[in-house]
Design a protein that fits this description.
13 strands, globular, three-stranded antiparallel beta sheet, alpha+beta
Length: 255
């Protein structure tokens, strides 16, 4: 999502019950997509599998119809960073695909993303993916009572910068609850100890986005959705919906 304002709401136990349920549906969508993502499969088939999970779990999509988006997943391949539209594109061995999707249960949202390489393991591609995952893990560890929003962005930036990758400045994580995108922005850059306070009950969608070529520039394609790296390099994306608890972070979008 694009950058927005910054206030943080706290969720009640009853609200969190629904958000945990939504998060489990998202995690199952991821699991089902991973199971069939192989050479010869179209990105539209991945979308169909995700729809089947939503139907089976009596959940609805927070992507489908969002500002006109035509699918329940974003399927971004290779240089596509985010918001790729599923279609007749056939996956090839060695493709890097990032999947972003969400679910709604009783009006409450979950949202998460992952990146994988198709049917092989290329060192440079795997390094990009594992760095995205490491940046997400580092950011999640900052989701503690008494922390600050800036701690999250600082954690992401330290991992991404040390690895020599770029990250877009206009796309970031977000608050989440009754809507998929709520305040505050959860930027992938920040200053430790700065920004709004993190408290028990705060839920944020944290999503590092990495550009393999080291630049930060991106371009939106003519379809009005797909965002690609300006230098044509590979991109990776990782995301979880995370809750601050008295005992530290809880990942809501993990089975």
């Amino acid at each position: 999502m694009r950058l927005r304002g910054s206030t943080i709401s706290r969720r009640t136990d009853d609200q969190l019950r629904h958000m945990r349920a939504a998060g489990r549906v998202v995690a199952e969508m991821h699991e089902s997509i991973r199971a069939i993502a192989r050479p010869g499969v179209t990105t539209l088939r991945l979308d169909t599998v995700a729809r089947e999970v939503l139907q089976r779990r009596n959940a609805t999509s927070n992507f489908l119809g969002y500002h006109g988006f035509p699918a329940v997943i974003c399927a971004s391949v290779n240089e596509e960073l985010v918001h790729g539209i599923p279609g007749d594109r056939v996956l090839d061995e060695g493709d890097l695909i990032s999947i972003d999707c969400g679910a709604i249960i009783n009006g409450w949202h979950g949202d998460a993303a992952f990146s994988i390489e198709i049917a092989t393991s290329t060192p440079s591609t795997q390094r990009l993916i594992t760095t995205a995952e490491a940046a997400l893990d580092a950011a999640i560890r900052q989701m503690v009572d008494g922390g600050h929003l800036g701690d999250i962005g600082a954690a992401v930036d330290s991992i991404v910068s040390a690895a020599g990758y770029g990250s877009p400045t206009d796309y970031c994580g977000h608050g989440i609850g009754r809507a998929m995108h709520e305040e505050p922005d959860v930027e992938n850059r920040g200053r430790r100890g700065k920004g709004p306070l993190l408290e028990v009950g705060v839920v944020l969608a944290i999503e590092p986005m990495l550009i393999g070529g080291g630049r930060n520039d991106v371009v939106e394609l003519d379809d009005g959705w797909t965002v690609v790296t300006a230098d044509g390099s590979l991109a990776a994306h990782a995301e979880h919906t995370v809750l601050v608890t008295p005992n530290g972070p809880e990942i809501l979008t993990r089975l």
